[in-house]
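Memo to structure team: turn this sequence into structure tokens by end of day. - J.P.
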Amino acid sequence: MEDRGIKTKMELKVAILIFAVTILSTVLVTEHLIRKFKKKGYVVKDMYKKNKPKIPTMGGLAIMSGLMISLVASQLLLEEIDLGRLLLLYFIVLVYGTFGLLDDLIDIGRKMKVIAPFFMALPIALVVTDTSISLGFTTLEIGLFALYITSPLYIMIVSNLLNMHEGYNGLGTGLSILLMLFIGAKLALDGNYDLLPYLFPILAVSLAFMYYNKYPSVIFLGNSGTLLLGSAVGALLVFFNMELFGIVILLPHIINFLLWCLWVVLMKLWPQKYPHIKWAKLRDDRTIEAPNWLTIKYIVAKLFKVKEWQALLICYMITFVFGVIGLVWF
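Reply from structure team:
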């Protein structure tokens, strides 16, 4: 028992060390990229500020860099973990990030965005060990169908859900961190502490990047970041066999997607009444004037006369509430 206690303390120290290395490396890389992106002109307008300042984008590259450093540290320092499964899991995440980076640079097209993500998620079949789905009252075994169809589809869908629920400073990163924390809480409540190290690399990188992406942002995620974080959340839910739990904590994202689908239909039927509008307007008092009720972030701005940071906090709170519901329900 004493040896096990010593071993647990050593594992905790190693985890803290990897966390520290990951955060420090992500901070240094992000600082460097902010300077480089400004110099090279990789910037976009911050549409919810009065003077619309130009902010560096493609922050996903900083997340990818920090994540790779974290994985190297994990390989060198972690013993009580299957490194093969860890690297395969994050291979998917890094591929999604690379795909998003290409889209940021050259706009790869709508068809490719629909088709490619499914195939990019196929390596999840190599790390999934449980091919059953718990329905609460029974367990359904779906075998190879889970490995090669439902699991990649799940990751692809979650990645797109998180990509679409963006728009305010720090919204995508903050929501992803919240979802990861609830995944970690679920693991801890279930007593699966040995699985937490699989979550640590992306959580540490996200926390470090959030310092720069929080309101008011000094760097944006870009598609490279939103697709990477979305794929990470999806892959972790599949990896930990938490698909149904994931559906509950992702309900705000799902509702946001359904509202967007309704918007697409309305745009085709009544284009003058429901035009395609990417950004809401700002009133003179800097509150957001939402064009419609057809995304979560616009609903918040319609219900309450809020500035960007206030709308951001409400969006965080909505996901927090559903995260708590997920923990209580499951």
